[in-house]
Amino acid sequence: MKIIIVLFFPILLLAQTEDDFSIRILQDKRMENSPALYSHLASQHERERELALLAIANIQDTSAVDLVVPLLSDDSPKVRSMAAFALGMIGKPKAATALFRRLSVERNDKCMAEIFNAIGMCGTIDDLKHLVKLSESFPAKWKPHAAVSVMRFGNRKIKDAAATKYVASMLTDNASLLNATYALMRISDTTIIKKNHERLLELARNGSPLIRMWSTTMLGAIDDDASLTKLLALAKRDKDWRVRVNAVRALRTKNKFRNEMLSLLADKNEHVALTAMTSYDAMTAGETNFKDSTKVISILSSNAHASSVKEEARKYVAKKLGEQAIPLIGTWKSDQAYISAQRVRALNG
Fold first, then answer.
1. Does pTM top 0.90 for this prediction?
2. pLDDT tens across 207-248, in order?
């Protein structure tokens, strides 16, 4: 006689209640102005209100702004935080007024961070200027959030010199340094970057690999000997591969470093070697001859390189030499079918 053991598992582990499941179904329909979804905003259960707001955020339901705004004052910090997140994701400028109003009374740190973020995602240029004006009275702990808000405006091509200068002023504030460096890198204002050149050189030696990485990206916008020397040193020797990759990428337009870039093709770190290959390709984009064919082709016969690096070398040689490359790149044996397809695409590109 066979013994059959039946195990029962929840249909959806994430859907802990029937209401959770209902909200997710409504979200999947991606319908704006859904009374069924909106009804969950008035639920007595914190989790239900929070999930409904998340669904509205994911749908980016522009019809829901007026219904979401009151939840900025909800008793639950989780709900208030999600309400701010939803308004940011929806991105309607009229929400900024309510967000600023809540900013003046909110005391929960997570909610505060989401409010600043949402203002940057939905506000206008006037809202950005208003934010900078208010910043004179901001407590120190708000500054990192304000930096992210300015960055969010910048991502939407809404920029203001005074706002960018405000973010740059935080580069000397350790509490705000991480957010400020990231924000300034994303805003990418070359004028402000050049004015903070010396500070960025210092930050390229910072103990945080993230700060070094973002500073490295900004140094690439400054074409002077000190910056280029620092970038080359970081590309070769930084202990974090992400910093090295950003440094190599920042040097991609500096043709005088082509020999150094060639040497990095043999780097033991696959990410660095791949970035060096694409950067070297950019350096030689306008050349009709192929000066360094021997050096690049040598990669194909080396056992020290990852297959992905070899494949980038194959495509580069094919692009430069056309049909003449076939005998050269065909000597590297591989059982990966897609490589042949990439080679043909490179030859015909």
1. no
2. 999 999 999 999 999 988 999 999 999 999 999 999 999 999
The token duo for 193 is 């970057």
CB atoms within 10 A of CB 180: 28
271 pLDDT more than 80 = yes
Where b means 16+ CB within 10 Å and e means fewer, 183-196 reads bbbbbebeebbeeb
Q: Which domains can be identified in the chain, with CATH numbers? A: 8-123 (1.25.10.10), 142-186 (no CATH)
Report the 3 state secondary structure along the chain: CCCCCCCCCCCCCCCCCHHHHHHHHHHHHCCCCCHHHHHHHHCCCHHHHHHHHHHHHHHCCHHHHHHHHHHHHCCCHHHHHHHHHHHHHHCCCCHHHHHHHHHCCCCCHHHHHHHHHHHHHHCCHHHHHHHHHHHHHCCHHHHHHHHHHHHHHHHCCCCCHHHHHHHHHHHHCCCCHHHHHHHHHHHCCHHHHHHCHHHHHHHCCCCCHHHHHHHHHHHCCCCCHHHHHHHHHHHHHCCCHHHHHHHHHHCCCCHHHHHHHHHHCCCCCHHHHHHHHHHHHHHCCCCCCCCCHHHHHHHHHCCCCCHHHHHHHHHHHHHHHHHHHHHHHCCCCCCCHHHHHHHHHHHHC
User: CB neighbours of 184 closer than 8 A, spacing ≥ 6?
Assistant: 151, 164, 167, 168, 171, 192, 193, 196, 214, 218
Distance in angstroms (rounded) separating the CA atoms of residues 280 and 249: 10
Q: If you write DSSP's letter for every residue of 168-209 in order, what string do you get?
A: HHGGG-TTTHHHHHHHHHHH--HHHHHHTHHHHHHHTT-S-H
